[in-house]
Amino acid sequence: MSHWLVCGAGHWGTALSVYTARRGIATQLWGHRREHLPGTDADLAPIFPGVPVPPGLRIVAELEPALADAEVWLIAVPSHALRGLLRRLRAAGAPAPRALLLASKGLELDSGARLDAVVQEEYPQAPLLVLSGPSFAQDLLAGRPLAMTLAGTDPEIREALLQRLRSAQLRLYPSEDVAGVCLAGAIKNVLAIAAGICDGLGLGESARAALITRGLAELERIGTALGGQHDTFSGLAGAGDLILTASSDLSRNRRLGVALGQGLSLDAARARIGEEVEGVRSSRALYRVAQGLGVEAPISEQVYRVLYQGESPQRASVALMQRGLERVAPVLASRPMD
Predict the structure, then answer these.
(1) Catalytic residues
(2) Which end of the chain has the smaller Cβ count within 10 Å, N or C?
């Protein structure tokens, strides 16, 4: 009997597997750490204690047997694990699924590659779609309404998955911009760290609103330079996801930024959160890519300097506020004052 295979038993992968099972899709959830797998008892502890395992969901520790008859691969692993997982799938001799649905966000650290490009390099025979947008695992599990983007270049396969996944809870908007949707999900995590730093420094809501607004412009500059379409970055996958991630305490990226703004070191901030913070890895890759392209990315640059070059959050904030003043001040000084 065919089923969907969800690879990645973290919060988002687990929530997605629960959702697909609730939609009547036979689903198997796999994670690479047996001891961390949810559902060892009647509920989804330790990921979501108290949430029952729905009918139709099997949680498995062995990947290769779960590949048999898997109609769709839904991948929700961290960005740094994506290429290794795809190579493992290929080594297992798994035939290409009907669709590979990517729900991971980030950039590959070493190459700076978009995650859709990584999939196409390692598994070009698998029809690729990308699911992204403003969403938290807790909201999906709780049945709260969400709206997201489903991107794919094959209209027939995209429409088939839209019909399987759409519900009164989850509204999906189709897109052909696979590259842009992937990029938006990666870049917004870095910008969300900046918003958290702003809040951790106690700079106020006005400053955060300004940072998010300028972050949207930066998101579009970098995203279009890397192959995305303008409209994508003003939609759900871009603006929507950034606003959510930069504003909510449920966001690990924002919480890490808050901890840094409050004076914690990067190691201490990561230890406080205790989970993967995708924006930390993406920051390094994004900085290298933006520098290589010559794209103006001042917010992402300052996040990188705080994370990797020992810059203090206070000095990074001042650098952003004073940016460009060295060009303005001489002009003003040369003009007579009334």
Answers:
(1) 188
(2) C
Residue ending a domain, choose from 176, 198, 229? 176
205 CB contacts (<8 Å, ≥6 apart)?
Answer: none
Number of domains forming the structure of the chain: 2
User: Domain limits at 308?
Assistant: 180-324
Average pLDDT, integer, range 234-258: 97
Distance separating alpha carbons of residues 1 and 69, to the nearest angstrom: 6
pTM: predicted TM-score of the whole model, two decimal places? 0.93
pLDDT at 208 over 80: yes
Burial 291-312 (b: 16+ CB within 10 A, else e): eeeebebbbbbbbbbbbeeebe
Question: Is the backbone peptide bond immediately before 97 cis, with ω within 30 degrees of 0?
Answer: no
- Position 337 in a domain: no
Q: What is the CATH number of the domain that holds 121?
A: 3.40.50.720
The total of other beta-carbon atoms located within 10 Å of residue 187's CB is 35
